[in-house]
Amino acid sequence: MLTIQTGLDEARRKNNPALASQAVRAFARQRFFGGAKEAIKVLANMGDGAPPMLNHLFSDSTLSHLYPDIIAAMVTAGGNELALILTEIVEHDYFSWRHQSSKLDEGWWNDSSGDHRRWLREQYAKLLAALRALRPLQYEPCRTSIVNTLELWQRIPALGKSGNGQIIHECERILRGLDTAISDPEPD
After folding, report:
1. Integer Cα distance of 47 and 159 in angstroms
2. Residue 185 carries which DSSP code?
3. Rounded Cα gap, residues 139 and 78, in angstroms
4. How far apart are CA 178 and CA 151, in angstroms?
5. DSSP annotation string for 108-162
6. Which of 65, 81, 71 has the alpha carbon at shortest distance from 41?
7. pLDDT at position 164, please?
8. Is the dihedral of CA 28, 32, 36, 42 positive or negative?
């Protein structure tokens, strides 16, 4: 563990996103998630090199339990592509949940088998984190993905009742924000 921490310290000193990314993976492999989360936070503050590394971490399914932290780091890191990346996450998750929804019973949050339940909860947390990060960006091109997600979660009882309706609530908040931005544009 000390070697990994030394690597993270070096990444911080050199402002090296690749080294920070390696530290995230190394901590996660050792199941030291506090260290992995700290490395993600360090990576988020490394300037222009951070977003591509964070996106690469996000594409690693072995890190799915860290997706909400990675998304939060993406927001911190910013970058011009952030809204597009978040929209792509929501769109991908829409298709994933659409596929899963026919197999879910009401109460899946607590009733599914251990590994499957954990995977579903991680996917839920990822989608919720992406929606929450997308909301303040008021990115109009996300509208179709948000509407599709909202309609799916409203239409499928097993989805809509999960998480106290958080996904539905966040989708509605994003759409209200987009509608407000359209009706009250910034002055030129």
Report:
1. 37
2. P
3. 14
4. 17
5. HHHHS-HHHHHHHHHHHHHHHHHHHHHGGG--GGGHHHHHHHHHHHHH-HHHHTG
6. 71
7. 67
8. negative
**Can you give the pLDDT at residue 141?**
95
* Domain edges within the chain: 1-79, 81-188
List the structure tokens of 63. 């890190």
Question: What is the maximum span of the chain, computed from C-alpha positions, in angstroms?
Answer: 55
The kind and range of the H/E element at 45 are none
CA 161, CA 44: separation in Å to the nearest integer? 34
For 164, other C-beta atoms within 10 Å of its C-beta total 8
pTM flag (> 0.85): no
The Cα-based distances of 121 to 37, 51, 89, 146, 162 in angstroms read 18, 25, 16, 20, 10
By residue count, the chain amounts to 188
Residues 175, 133 contacting (CB under 8 angstroms): no
Which tokens in the block code for residue 20? 């920070």
The pLDDT assigned to 90 comes to 96
Alpha helices (H) along the chain: 2-14, 17-29, 33-44, 50-58, 67-77, 82-101, 108-111, 114-134, 143-155, 157-160, 166-183
